[in-house]
Specification:
9 helices
Length: 252
């Protein structure tokens, strides 16, 4: 990639990350997740999806504009927000997916075609595969519960940038499953995605355990199950990288 293309791609990535963190309310919503005057779980879900799963890969692209895993992660999240919008009958959420799609396309176009690299052959992680299977049923069921709540126009939700949080909460649940599955097949390439999943699941579980009965919350048992599942994803994602570090000559 030429220097000018690198500069354009990096500048766009930084700009988009800041958009989702600030006007996109990722940081702002996360700051109110411990205030009982807000629907804390739904605030956490919004902040985690647009912060840990969207802004973070844009930051990665600012550092490495040729990061195929970051582009793929953003594409998966974008598609899932669009699916969530359709299942929630929430056109405002679809508009957010469209904005994200335009941002992804602009970075792809800024890159040289020759810079696009594949993910390489899959190196399946058994622990991450097991965790993806274990999380599939509960997270998908939770997502559809959130979509149904959005269609009911429940008063216990919150609206950010015109979007009911329930649809985004469901999109986050779908993303946790999808990104864990990707990391299970390409554990070395999708460490960022798996790390975002781990942070999101653990944080949701902790917030839910601390605020029982809040909109979008889990039971106490499921709250701590989410924490353990997220910790498992994070630990399993680190294993290949720790093994590679031990294999470097000269290291103990």
């Amino acid at each position: 990639m030429s220097n000018s293309r690198q500069t354009i791609a990096r500048s766009l990535a930084i700009f988009y990350a800041l958009l989702w963190l600030l006007p996109g309310f990722a940081i702002i919503d996360l700051t109110v997740t411990w205030s009982s005057s807000w629907p804390v779980m739904l605030e956490a879900g919004w902040g985690l999806l647009f912060g840990a799963l969207v802004a973070a890969p844009f930051v990665a692209l600012a550092r490495t504009p040729d990061s195929t895993p970051a582009i793929l992660q953003l594409t998966v999240v974008c598609l899932l927000v669009a699916i969530a919008a359709a299942l929630s009958l929430n056109w405002q959420a679809a508009a957010h997916a469209a904005v994200l799609a335009v941002q992804i396309a602009s970075i792809v176009l800024a890159r040289s075609a020759r810079s696009w690299s594949g993910l390489g052959p899959p190196r399946r992680s058994v622990p991450l595969t097991v965790l993806a299977v274990l999380g599939f049923g509960p997270w998908i069921a939770y997502a559809f519960e959130m979509f149904a709540a959005d269609r009911e126009n429940r008063p216990d939700s919150d609206i950010t940038n015109g979007v009911d949080h329930y649809s985004i909460q469901g999109a986050l649940a779908l993303a946790l499953v999808a990104l864990t599955a990707l990391a299970a097949w390409w554990p070395r390439q999708f460490l960022l995605g798996a790390g975002g999943v781990a942070v999101a699941a653990m944080y949701l579980g902790i917030v839910s355990a601390a605020h029982q009965g809040t909109a979008g919350g889990f039971s106490t048992a499921w709250s701590w199950a989410a924490v353990l599942w997220g910790a498992g994803v994070g630990g399993a994602a680190l294993l290949p990288h720790l093994d590679r570090a031990r294999a470097v000559p000269g290291r103990p």
